[in-house]
Amino acid sequence: MYRNALSSRFVIASAMLALFAAGVPSLQAQPTPLIREIRRELRSLPSYGVFDLLTFKANDDGSVLLGGYVLSEALKTDAEKVVASVRGVTKVDNKIDVAPVGITDDDLRRKVFRAIYRDPFLARYGTPADEAAASRARFAPWGDGFRDYSEFGSARWMQSPFFGQEPVGNYAIHILVNRGVVTLAGTVDNEADKTAAGQKARLAGATTVNNDLHVVVKKGA
């Protein structure tokens, strides 16, 4: 009887642990080959620039939801094409938003870009001084483990057009502009740089600044 009771307790305890594990997914789970390939293809898009930000989610059945905010319809189309070509992808639901055309927003993008990336300290984040030539950054891309970033838990990242999905960071500081509102997304080394980037955007003429830059805590720091 004692042995049966002990066995029953073990079964119950195991079941409870399994339920707990199922309800609390690991934030450090290793990306699958499919996720790594999708990320690689999106990052390699020639027209993917500092004023765009793509997000995605790959499901177990091979379907992929694409989100994000981009400057051109061409980039939205190209993103869908390259993801659809990845082996193992069965379907692509393209919900990427294209920025509205506007001279005022275009002017603001240039001003914010120059204010941030030509700053003597912030320029070290690696984008060329001329935004027209900013096709790639000179730093390690980000996005892996994004659920550890508190900034990506806010309401504006959970809804359209980002859907709380993994961002594909090609620049340390992405600059998203929509009708005068500037959103800064990416990673920086310290709080001082995050604050400085937000101040630069405000001084450049943004009506509102969503400073969602994430401060990366380096190991051993």
Short description:
The chain has 221 residues and is of the alpha/beta class.
* SSE sequence, one letter per element: HHEEHEEHHEEEHE
> What Rg do the Cα atoms give?
21 Å
In whole angstroms, the N-to-C terminal distance is 55 Å
Average pLDDT taken over every residue = 84
Got a strand count?
8
Fraction in helix: 25-40%
SS summary, helix count: 6
Biggest β-sheet description:
5 strands, mixed
The total domain count is 2
Shape, per Cα inertia axes:
globular
Poorly predicted ranges: 1-28
* Proportion of residues in β-strands: 15-25%
Describe the model:
- This protein has 221 residues and is an alpha/beta fold.
- The protein has 2 domains: 33-96; 98-215, no CATH class.
- Helix content is 35%, strand content 20%.
- It has 6 helices and 8 strands.
- It has helices spanning 2-23, 33-43, 73-84, 103-117, 155-158, 191-203, and strands spanning 53-58, 63-70, 91-94, 97-98, 166-168, 173-178, 181-188, 208-215.
- Strands 1, 2, 3, 4 and 5 form a 5-stranded mixed sheet that branches. Strands 6-7-8 form a 3-stranded mixed sheet, with helices on one face.
- Strand 1 (53-58) and strand 2 form a beta hairpin.
- Helix 4 (103-117) packs antiparallel against helix 6 (191-203).
- The longest helix is centred in the N-terminal third of the chain and has 22 residues, at 2-23.
